[in-house]
Amino acid sequence: MAFADNLKALPPVAHLAALELTNAVGDVVARIENKPGQAGSLAVYAALAAKHGAINAAAAAEGLEIYAEHTADALAHPGKHPNIDRLIGITAPAQALGVRLIRA
User: Fold this and answer.
1) How many CA atoms lie within 13 A of 57 on its CB side?
2) Domain region containing 83
3) What is the DSSP letter of 24?
4) Could you say which of 20, 32, 56, 90 would form a disulfide bridge with 60 (CB–CB 3.0 to 4.6 Å)?
5) Which has the closest alpha carbon to 6: 47, 37, 53?
């Protein structure tokens, strides 16, 4: 399925202003906001966090499937899709990211 189709199957995120990704010591390493160009990634990361409790290797693998055709583009063009690149880089438990939801 295409990313647009996968996105329709995810829970809505209208109640969120953003989410923050944190490293093992709680430092914020990234922020995904509910705005054009990021709302899809917000939905993906929020759904993964709800299901997996964090963005760990299992969540990352699932996220790459959700991103569908954009994953192939990210692999071909590193840096073009930073939210996908982040998932590609999570392969070990020590790389897991915590998630803080910021309500609207």
Assistant:
1) 5
2) 3-103
3) T
4) 90
5) 47
